[in-house]
Structure formats: structure tokens, C-alpha cells
Amino acid sequence: MLHRDLLLEEARYKRYLGNAIEVSGAFKNLNYAFYKFRKPVDHVSVDLDILISVDDAPKAARILRQLGFKAVAVEPYTVTLEKRNFIVDLYTQPSFAWIVYINGERLLGVC
Hints:
The protein has a five-stranded mixed beta sheet with strand order 1-2-5-4-3, with helices on one face. Strands 6-7 form a two-stranded antiparallel ribbon. It has a single domain (about 1-105), classed as Beta Polymerase, domain 2. By secondary structure, the protein is an alpha+beta fold. The termini are far apart. It has three helices and seven strands; from the N terminus they run H-E-E-H-E-E-E-E-E-H. Helices cover about 35% and strands about 25% of the residues.
């Protein structure tokens, strides 16, 4: 049972990294950073969080749609896109409950 669980987790991790590589390759000319990429727990994340420059956010969403992603939620500082149960969250500002807690543009070195 444990061996099977480990194989499943490894397959999830391989899929997650493959998706992260696909997205990062498509964003090669954009100002972005992986956000919350490594979590302090041993599990595979359910989504890929990306901090993206406000100026590049529309282009990033367009690129993801060209890769087959569909927008499933639009919030003040985040757009969530999904493809085959893989979720990408594009953040223009790090926020919680729509409250910005640090300037995303400064983190990305824009201002």
C-alpha cells in the first residue's frame, strides 16, 4: 500500500513539474516569478502560483489560453486558469482576502 501511494505521489509530482516547465517556457519574455512554489510540507501542490507584472498579466493569460487553459475565476489581484485539472493562478499582487500585503511590482523589480 505504501509503495503504491509513493508511486502515485511521484507521478503527481512529475505531472506538476512538467506543467511548470511548460508554463515557464511560454513565459520566457515576461516579468514573473514562481510564488509559493516550494511549500514547507511534503506533498505535491494542486496549483502553480505565479506572481506576474501588472503589465504582463494580460499577455500571460493570453499565452495560457493559447496553451489550452480556460479562465475559471477572475478576482481583483488574481486570475485562475485551468487545463486538465491543472490550475495556474496569476497574481499581480500578493494578497489574502483581496488585501495586498506586499507590493508585487517591487518584488519583481519593476519599480
